[in-house]
């Protein structure tokens, strides 16, 4: 049989657990949906497009070989486009939290696609991608199933 101190401890532990569950649910429900990504799951390539404040397309990224890129083999082949002549380049940055952050692709010739590849050596088969010119801040999108 539980004594008074044990019962109080059990009630406090249950309250903390319930509070954590409610907070997690509220954060998840209030979070905005992430933008589409280079691979939105296996077999689902999606074009990433970034626009400036005026609505002008300033960077675009797509899977180079849609049939063989988003196939869960941890190898991604992408193409990056700098669609405007504004003196900047378009960049593709990849982030795996606490493990990896690097520029993977760059396109500086207006209207020409620049090709790059990414190998997931960490094994998560999921990465955050930011496609943008240098004068815009990062907008991270999830890519998975590549």
Keywords:
alpha+beta; 8 strands; four-stranded antiparallel β-sheet; 2 domains; Immunoglobulin-like; about 150 residues
Characterization of the model:
By secondary structure, this protein is an alpha+beta fold. The chain has two domains: 1-31; 48-144, Immunoglobulin-like (Sandwich), CATH 2.60.40. It has two helices and eight strands; from the N terminus they run αββαββββββ. It has helices spanning 4-30, 66-69; strands at residues 48-51, 57-63, 75-81, 90-96, 100-107, 113-119, 126-133, 141-144. It has a four-stranded antiparallel sheet with strand order 1-2-3-6, with no helix packed on it. A four-stranded antiparallel sheet has the order 5-4-7-8, with no helix packed on it. The longest helix is centred in the N-terminal third of the chain and has 27 residues, at 4-30. 23% of the residues are buried. The model is unreliable at 11-36 (pLDDT under 50).
Write the layout of secondary structure elements.
Blueprint lengths: L3 H27 L17 E4 L5 E7 L2 H4 L5 E7 L8 E7 L3 E8 L5 E7 L6 E8 L7 E4 L2
Antiparallel strand pairs: 1-2, 2-3, 3-6, 4-5, 4-7, 7-8
In short:
The chain is of the alpha+beta class and 146 residues long.
Radius of gyration, in Å, reads: 21 Å
Query: How many domains make up the coordinates?
Result: 2
Write down the overall geometry: globular
Q: β content, as a range?
A: 35-45%
Distance between the termini: 55 Å
Q: Write out the strand line-up for the largest beta sheet, numbering strands in chain order.
A: 1-2-3-6
Structural class: alpha+beta
